[in-house]
Structures are given as structure tokens and as C-alpha cells.
Write a structure and sequence with these properties.
4 copies of one chain form a homotetramer. By secondary structure, chain A is mainly alpha-helical. Chain A contains 11 helices and 5 strands. Chain A has a 3-stranded antiparallel beta sheet with strand order 2-3-4. The termini of chain A are far apart. The interface between A and C is large, with 41 and 42 residues. β5 of chain B pairs parallel with β1 (about 5) of chain D, so a sheet runs across the interface.
């Protein structure tokens, strides 16, 4: 088998370099957020970029034990006390298109919308209106807008404010705000959710859409590890049993005939 | 890298052999249960062995959507509509010492008990009484006895009856029955559960303890695939949110002082 | 939280019913393959249906330790000796669009092709030719055709022969054969692979496309459990290290300047 | 079902608090490393504590694509192009006792050694010598010492130096150094590895042993996300096939007789 190739890490006896930087330099003078940025972008962030990525990771670290990712991690920790990594992995596996995945989808929309505005010589507002109209006709949701719990997600304004202060806010922030306005005008008020805010900032920071999900996972694992630790220390194994209502076939014999309930005798 | 070595499967252009047998022979004249037995035991089963392993796999296929394995698979299917395998894997990850793992532990007990009886020249009944006494002193449960739902698990008598009819029942079945009797006499009635029955039969069929968990997984995956398929077809994504009660620190500022709730004005 | 609903399993004290059937009836008079069919199709199979599903599960049980699913399971078993389920889950997670997923995709094609033939009043052969033409124009592969290892996959003819003998072969088998012929005529010889054969049979057995992946997983878990058991018993932990070739940035200081290699002194 | 209880996160409409702190305060004035510390320790870190935890997370972020965690993530990404989370989870599942798990084990040793020194009124050096002696007699490794690649792991001295500068180095660092010396004297030079250094610092920072694995996972997920992103962008699906050497049963018929290889005719 040929060696696999990589541009990420080079380690040999006594030396570990991440994209060329000595890991001990990063440990002493850099930070974990620098390292995340470096791994994904092949360069170190500016102080403003670092600050925004840091805030993004904080914003998705944990949203409560009842979210699918945390609940699945706890279920696995409840049934399988043998392996922390099994419980964390179960939590991560709930993350996809529907949970933690809207960020990546919204980043695709932003990229397409910004491109459409440029190509057709229209404003971002007009591009956002077109997009919302098409989504509405297709009866599809607009990823990045709306939330099950929050009528206004407090993290959104903070991220946008930080992006503006850092002079990082660009087309991403503008387009997501335009989406919110277009949805409000033609559908109903659908406030920007954390996925939408994260997508706007990551776009303006220059990350590709895939980062919308990958960086969500980096942040969420912080919460998952704590959820699992709490499950181990506070709860007894197998405490969880989800209540279920059966609504399928009534009792039947193997030949398909109904089971005759024996008459009760007195 | 040196090639990995294996005694399981040899495949080359036009040929796939499992432990020496042509896979097409197994497809035409053998069965899936034969193949499971063959993969784990390096020989084909007798008809009686096949019948018992078949019944064991049926017995653990599914016990309801509320069990940790099924619930975690559904949670993952609910949040991540991108990948069936992610949902099945999340379900499997709940399986361990506490869920689906008692079979392997009980097989260890059986092996130790049978060995102790032989070495010390005592009966299996006496060996079982010793074991229950030691467990009781250590305040440890006896794996294979007791169930959260069933006062009598209907699968146990059926498996033991089939093992007797097939003349396979041996030390494993005898020892687990002796455990149940010893627990009843010195602790309380703790009926044999499916893990205990599965352990007894797998011991008598000559499987090593690890098979107690591995074959549970083979059977349970049948149920997990159906649970996931039902979640996709009957339920909308993200329908599940577990209710949570927070009982931690009250609201505080970053400097640790309590948050002053703004007085309500009228 | 409202109870979850399910039509799969109803269990209460002393009773477990799968789609209405008593699990002990299935254990005594049915089989694991019956149970798989029942869970997915809500009825028991005929003897011919059972036989074909049985052969399908055998056909995908294991194809060698080097396949991604088996290799990932072994890597996880090598690094994490704490949990069988973690290793099996790692193996399952490699299954998706590219590995074990072509069956489901091919079932979608078959369904679309059969529908197109019916709607447009054309033969299955013509529908297959159209489909291959469209794929070719889109530079897309035809799932179900071609294999990395086998020029002729020995499992295909066996499955098709069994389906014909059982009088189950229908549009699915016919359409996949037509695809192979259309590809041969307009692209190059691309023999039907196991995914294509599995897709043809599952279509003719009335399964939905999702079953193409779900049943692959049921079968493959048999092999994964044996691969993991072999890794635990034959190999020492952490034996596996994949050789890697670094081709990224050369050594650099945190300020971006190249690392000056200290001159060697003598 | 009763609500689950948690002391980690409280979220309601318009408010998310992590252990009492408003998530938006943490985003604006705190950091991701603060949040990790807070989730696990229920308080914010001091600047020195933050700096050390930050360096620990950097130190384990990635050690090369050939490590089991990274290799399994790439294998899953190679086979299953449907889900990032599936690939990340596969990588995490390789983490356990043998890979990324020595930190937690070493923390158990440190806690036991420090306790033994206190109880028996002996020095940490003497406690370390006793421990190494017992391990040697049991032919067991000392977790935290020795490495497959590095004769001297460059990360260790850096972490210990930072801990000393921050006045955090205490019994943990002292005990691990004593272990290294005791091993050198009675076995052979076994330099402290990253797990041992991480264990020493986390002990001195007041973390429980479980954190040895949980925080390794938090750090490593940064690397896993980048490995998966690189696999998606640089490599074609299914590029990986591990070479395998079969050494099992020779070809045989279902009745067990050897397959007669047809004589070659000329």
C-alpha cells in the first residue's frame, strides 16, 4: 500500500509540525483556536479572526441536555459504561442535515446568493428575495432562519456585533440579514438562528461550507464531554427508558389468525 | 506496511471464500445463521446448533423502541437524516456492560463456576451458591438474573426447552438454573433474564464469552434497521426533544456575582 | 414528553410481540431471516422469499478484512480495547453512498426505470439505454455496475439463478441485466456487481430502496463481529499504523518565516 | 417520563446559561477554553489555568494521519461520503484504553500514588518506585511512559515548563517525573509521553481522571475535522484498500472435503 499523503501534520522522532509550525510553538505562543483555524485554513488567524472563531465555538458548545446530540450521548452513556468515546460518538452521530447541519446549508445559500448578485448585477437584498421566493415555491425551509425554542436567539446579535466591531462582517452577514428581511416580508417573521449567524460569519471569515458542520462539531464536543461526565457521575446506569405507545398489528398467530384471548374464568 | 493477516475471508477476482468455503455454496446450500456460526467458530454448525443460534438471534432482535439502543438510533435518525449507518451505529454504541453486555459477563461466570466445580470437586449447585454468596458480600449484581420489565421473561423457558430438545443443554444451562435457585434462596427471586439464557446456551454451544455481546449485536441490528426505517418513514425530522430540569448554579455574572433581575416596572 | 409511537414491537411483562407475532413463536417455528423480513415488511415471508433474503444476507456478510468497513472496525479494535460495540460501530460508519450504498441507489434507478418504461410505453431495455445515456452525459457512474476486485462477481449469477428458480425474478432482475447490456454497448463491459444484484432482488421482493443499505448492514455486521473478535484474539493492541507521506508547508516559525536549519558542526 | 436533570445548561426562550453564566457573556468576554473548563469544573479558570488547558488541547489536536483515530476517520470518509459526523465519530471510536486512554489511567496512578505517599508517610519518589516495582512484577506497562514514535516527546518538556512558570506544577508533575526516574533505574529509559504529561497537568489542575480521556477527545476532534475535510477535498471516494494476507483454512466443499483443483490441461 502506498503511503497516504497529507498536508496537515508531519511527525517524526522528536518533532511534530502542524502545517509547518512546530506544535510546541503553538502550545507556548498560540492557542487551541489558532490551531483549529490553522488546520482548516492553512494559515494562522489574525487576532480578530481568532476572536470570532473563538466566540463561534463557545456559541455552539452546549444548548441543553435535551438536544438530540446531548440526549443520544447520555443514552449511550446510560447503556454502555465501558467507553467514553462510544458515548461522545453517539452524540456526534445525531449531527447532520437537520441538527447542526443548517450552518453548512446556509453557507451554500450565501455563496450562491452572492454569486447570483454579482453575475446578474443585482443587490444582495434582491438576490435574497429571489431565493426566498424560490424556496417558498418549492415549499422548502430557508436554513439559518427559525428556531424551535428561541423567538430571538440571543447569540445572533452578539455574533453580528462582534463581526462588525472586528470589521469582518461582509457579504455573509449582509445576505443573512437580507434573507431574514425577505422571509419576514413574504412569509412570516423567522428570526436568524445560530446556524444562520454561524454561516454568515464563517462565510465572511473565508471558510468553505463544509466548515459549517465541522466547526459546529468541534464546539459541541466540549458540551458532549461534559454531558457524558455528568451522566456517569450523577446517574445510575440504564436509568433511561423512553415511553412507547404501540399502534401496530394486534396479536396474531404465525398463520396470521388473531390470538384468541383466553376467557377469564371466575 | 505489511499486509494484515486474517483467517476469515479470502477474496480474489471471481472468488470469495469464508473460512475456506465458497460464498456461493453458502448462499445456495447454507444460510445466514450458518455463516454467522462459521465466521465465529471456524466450522459449520450441526442442524441443532443452527436452530439454537437462530432462535438466539431472533430472541434479541428487538425489545421495543424505548430500549437505549433503539432510542439512540431514533434520536440519531431524527437529527441526522443524511446517513442510515450513523443512526444504526448510534444504536449499537449504547450496547455495553449495562445493556446487552450481561450475556458476556454471565458467560465468564459460567466458565469460572464450572471450572471451580471441577477443580474443587463440588457440584455446580454448590459452585453457584458460593458465587452468589461472594457477589452478595461484594454487593454486586449477578449478571443474567433479574429484568426491568419482565417478572418472567417468556424467552428463557423457550430457549432452555429448545436446548434440551436438541440435547445441547449442558453445564451452561445447569449452572444458570443453579444461580437462579441460589439467588432465590439467599437474596430474593431473581428470574433468569434473556442475557442469562443466551449465556447458558452460547456456553453450551462452545462459544467464548465475547460472543455473548457480539452475537447480541448481530441480532439487535435487525431491530435497529427497522426502528430507523420506521423513524424515517413515520416521523418528521427533529421531532424529539427530551424534557430537562435544570438544577445547577443560579444566574451569575462573569465575576461570579448573582445576576440582579431588573425590577419589573409598571 | 408524549410516548413515542411504533408499529414494530410491543413488550409488556411476560410478553414480547413483533408486529403482532409472539417472539417465542418466531423463536420456535420461525427464523432470524423471517424476523428481518417481518420487521421490514410487516408480514412473514414465503419460503422462496425467505430463501432469497437469506442468500442476500450471506452474500454481503464479509468480503475481506481490507474493505473499509472491516478495516475501520479493526482500527477501532486496535486503539480502543474497551468496547466491542465501538469497533462494530466504526465499521458500520464507513457504509454509505460509496461503500455498501450502491444497492439503495440502484434500487432508485430500477424504480425510476420501470416507471419510465410504463409511463412512456417503452421496453425495459429501452428505458435502460436511456438511463445509461443520461448517466454518460452527466459523467456519472451507474450504481450496480463495475467492481474494484472482481471482473465477474461470482455472487451475481447465483443470486439471479436463485431468483429465477424461485419465480421471484421480475422487473428488477430484467432491468439490471438491461443496464449491464446498455453499458456494454455504449460504454464498456461493466459487469453487474453485488450491489446491483442485491438491488434487483430486493426490488423484486418488494422492498423499498432504503432496504438496499439497511439489509447490507444487517448482513455485514456478521462479518464485522468476526473481524473484531479476530483482531482481539490474534493481534496486540495498537499494532496498526498507516504509513503517511507529508507534502504540505515546509517548517516555518510562527511569524511565517522559514525555519533555519542549524548548520551541522563537526 | 420525568424530565432529566442537569446542572450544565439552562436554556429557555431568549436565554442560554452555562453553569449560570450567560452564553453571550462567555462569547464576548470569555473563550472556548474557558467554556471547556467551566463545563467540566463548574467554575471559570484563572488565566494560568486557561493557558495550561489551552496548551493541553493544542498538544493533542493532531499527531498525523496515520494514528488510529485519524486513519479510521479517513476510512469512514472514504467509504461514506454522506455524513461528516459519521467520519468524525469513527475516528473518536478508536480512542480508548490503548489510544488516548493512557492519560486517564496515569491520572488514576497519580491519585493512588499521592494517596499512598500521604498515608504511609513516604516520599513521592518512594511511592513511584513501589508502583513501578508492582507493575514490573505484574508485567504491566506504566501508562504515561514510552512512545511508539518519539524517543523524546517534545511536548512534554514544554507542558512541564509552562506548568512550573504558572506555579501550577504540583504532585502530578512531581509524581510523573518520579515514575520516569523509577522506570529508568529498574527497567529501562522510558521517557514520559504526552499522556503522562497531560495526566500530570490535569491532576495538578484538579481534574478527575475521566478528564484525561474526555479532554483528549475535545482536542483531537480539531484534528479529526481537518483530516476528514482533507480526505473529502484531496482524495476520491473508496481510494483506500488495506492489503490483506489470508492464512486460514484452504478451499473446502460444504461437506468439509478439500476442493479438488481441476487439473490443468494442455
Amino acid at each position: 500500500m502506498d503511503p497516504w499523503r497529507t498536508a496537515l501534520v508531519n511527525s517524526s522522532d522528536g518533532s511534530i509540525r502542524i502545517r509547518g509550525y512546530d506544535v510546541t510553538d503553538l502550545m507556548r505562543q498560540g492557542s487551541f483556536v489558532d490551531t483549529v483555524f490553522l488546520l482548516h485554513r492553512a494559515r494562522l488567524p489574525t487576532p480578530d479572526e481568532r476572536r470570532l472563531l473563538d466566540a463561534i465555538l463557545v456559541s455552539v458548545a452546549d444548548h441543553g441536555s435535551g438536544a438530540p446530540s446531548c440526549a443520544a450521548a447520555r443514552l449511550a452513556a446510560s447503556g454502555n459504561r465501558q467507553s467514553f468515546s462510544a458515548a461522545i460518538a453517539a452524540g456526534i452521530l445525531t449531527i447532520g442535515e437537520e441538527h447542526g447541519g443548517a450552518g453548512a446549508q446556509c453557507m451554500e445559500l450565501i455563496a450562491a446568493g452572492v454569486e447570483e448578485a454579482r453575475t446578474d448585477g443585482i443587490t444582495l437584498d434582491e438576490a435574497a428575495r429571489r431565493l426566498v421566493r424560490r424556496r417558498r415555491q418549492a415549499r422548502a425551509r430557508v436554513p439559518g432562519l427559525g428556531h424551535r425554542v428561541h423567538s430571538t436567539d440571543p447569540r445572533v446579535a452578539v455574533l453580528f456585533g462582534m463581526a462588525r466591531d472586528a470589521k469582518v462582517a461582509g457579504d455573509g452577514v449582509a445576505f443573512v440579514l437580507a434573507l431574514e428581511e425577505a422571509a419576514r416580508a413574504s412569509i412570516k417573521p423567522l428570526p436568524i438562528n445560530i446556524d444562520g449567524a454561524l454561516a454568515a460569519l464563517l462565510h465572511d471569515l473565508g471558510f468553505p461550507p463544509a466548515a459549517g458542520m465541522l466547526l459546529f462539531i468541534v464546539g459541541r464536543v466540549a458540551g458532549l464531554t461534559a454531558e457524558v461526565a455528568e451522566e456517569y457521575t450523577r446517574e445510575r446506569p440504564m436509568r433511561i427508558r423512553i415511553p412507547v405507545q404501540y399502534d401496530g398489528e394486534p396479536p396474531r398467530e404465525l398463520d396470521g389468525t388473531p390470538v384468541k384471548t383466553p376467557e377469564l374464568q371466575d
